Predict the structure.
Amino acid sequence: MTIQWFPGHMLETQNLLKKAISKVDAVLEILDARLPEASANPFVNKICNGKFRLKVLNKNDLADPEQTKLWLEYFKKKEGTSAISICGTQKVQAYEALNYCVNKIDRNRARKIKVMVIGIPNTGKSTILNSLAGKKIANIGDVPAITRHQQRTSLKNNIDIYDTPGILWPVIEPEERAYILAASGAISDTAIDYNDIGFFAATLLIKRYPDLLMQRYSFLKMLPDDELTLIEKIGSARGCLKKGGIVDFQKASEVLIRELRAGKIGRISFETPKDPEHDN
Ligand SMILES: Nc1nc2c(ncn2[C@@H]2O[C@H](COP(=O)(O)OP(=O)(O)OP(=O)(O)O)[C@@H](O)[C@H]2O)c(=O)[nH]1
Ligand SMILES: [Mg+2]
């Protein structure tokens, strides 16, 4: 299944970023710590050429800490790449990311420093802005595409920060990347089929996080052999039933995805770094 979700405001934002990027001193690229590669928009690579950019693996409180550690090591080995992991709801951690960036800029104190926050939808860009400002400046929400326009905010220390709308790209390929993005909550519900995403997530959980799965769904007497059985058991236990008592797989998948996104199953990462030796 090809997932396509590229509403008009994303194209507008893409065009705006192309022009605005030359006027900023540095970029905070907000990634999702659970999917640091899938959540990196290739367009950001194109426009940030020569500009200092910090990869911020946000939502680290939801990600598998072992995997986050591996990702940070992975990025450290990549030339010209700086990365940090944070929980963006925490002011201190949001400032760690901003200060990292600011310290890399040749600073003339009389001039304002401009830092732009970029990323795909729902990675926590506006949350980080609010944490930095110490108050609610931008609307946030647990669905993608909350921010629709660029917003400039002046912080202390002569720093201006630009929050921008999350952007994806017209056709998301390969399929696995689209599924990872959808499972994380970066793609609108209107563009995905919960059955597909639920089955994808169930496969991943059985393979990589069997213990967390068994703890969360204590009605499972043993680890299900396959994703179909897992979804079916969740559906029966949670009352996701159609007429005649048949399990409603769509509803059961929604339950699984909702709980996965909210961190109720535990700290889960969707991606493991590849061996950089084999990277191209
Ligand atoms: N657990 C956790 N949740 C977070 C964190 N940062 C943001 N969130 C939540 O993630 C959701 C999305 O946050 P936003 O700040 O609206 O994300 P955004 O990147 O601005 O999204 P768009 O404007 O749609 O591009 C909200 O429900 C936030 O509360 C974090 O570090 N940890
Ligand atoms: Mg936002």
